[in-house]
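Fill in residues.
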């Protein structure tokens, strides 16, 4: 008798296909938006308590992540009462909300299209929706650099990491990861307001992305080879420059894509009027153009497909060979 394919593999596959076709819905009750509202509410309450700011931030992180996990676990448990099909569909929907393949692609393509139309104002505005840096005075190369960096970083925290946790622990783990990532994006800043309050959120996000980021150092070069990029260059720059970034994780996919395209990213960027010096990553072999964004998006798509294929392969091998 042939053992059935594990349900969470079906959920991951359905979720990925749905995301590629439909994209992330602009829905006020989107689970990630609900997590964001919960973070805002908890921050307001915790800052009123007479306890150290760092302790407040730790409590915020523990409450949001555990609350998200338990809430999704309850939803998955209840869905099982409706039968296997209901459980698979609900689980697939949860994973679908946790990944953002098409939305990352679509928002980046808006920047690319504006640049190809020689409309810097429109390109800056489109870029401002997906980056945290100041975009008002950016030239074409700076816009391309920022967009490629976003695609590279997003390929991990928006795609590979939630998929990694979906493989590791199903829909509950995938959405719990999304809570970690949302916490980091909302409070994990290094300004005066959040340097202590967001400490726990930022450190947990670093830990959560540690393995997926290093997986990307292998998969992005493979994807670049399939996309007619520079496999050796991608691998070389990933290992040479991946640790230059202030973040222990972001620099790895950025370096891998920079090497694949033969471009140089990084350098000074302005955040709220303040210049932040970032290390340069990659070698300036090719110019930064709108086509660089298109190539990065293609590599991102292929990387995600490779990750799912390898993930399914590993799970099935473990299931049928050892259990």
């Amino acid at each position: 008798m042939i053992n059935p394919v594990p349900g969470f593999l079906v959920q991951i596959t359905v979720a990925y296909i749905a995301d590629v076709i439909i994209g992330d819905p602009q829905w006020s009750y989107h689970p990630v938006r609900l997590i964001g509202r919960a973070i805002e509410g908890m921050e307001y309450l915790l800052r009123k308590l007479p306890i150290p700011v760092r302790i407040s931030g730790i409590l915020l992180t523990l409450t949001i992540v555990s609350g998200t996990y338990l809430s999704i676990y309850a939803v998955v448990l209840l869905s099982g009462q409706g039968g296997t099909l209901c459980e698979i569909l609900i689980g697939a929907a949860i994973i679908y909300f946790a990944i953002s393949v098409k939305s990352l692609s679509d928002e980046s393509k808006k920047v690319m299209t504006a640049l190809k139309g020689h409309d810097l104002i429109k390109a800056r505005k489109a870029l401002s929706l997906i980056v945290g840096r100041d975009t008002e005075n950016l030239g074409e190369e700076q816009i391309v650099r920022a967009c490629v960096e976003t695609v590279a970083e997003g390929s991990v925290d928006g795609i590979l990491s939630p998929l990694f946790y979906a493989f590791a622990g199903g829909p509950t783990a995938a959405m719990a990861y999304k809570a970690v990532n949302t916490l980091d994006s909302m409070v994990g800043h290094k300004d005066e307001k959040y340097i202590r309050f967001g400490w726990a959120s930022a450190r947990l996000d670093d830990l959560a992305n540690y393995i997926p980021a290093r997986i990307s150092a292998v998969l992005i070069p493979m994807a670049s080879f399939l996309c007619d990029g520079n496999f050796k260059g991608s691998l070389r720059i990933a290992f040479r420059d991946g640790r230059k970034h202030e973040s222990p994780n972001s620099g790895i996919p950025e370096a891998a894509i920079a090497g694949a395209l033969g471009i140089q990213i990084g350098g000074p960027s302005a955040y709220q009027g303040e210049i932040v010096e970032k290390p340069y990553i990659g070698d300036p072999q090719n110019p930064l153009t709108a086509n660089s964004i298109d190539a990065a998006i293609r590599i991102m798509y292929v990387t995600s497909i490779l990750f799912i294929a390898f993930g399914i392969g590993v799970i099935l091998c473990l299931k049928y060979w050892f259990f």
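The chain has eleven helices and four strands.
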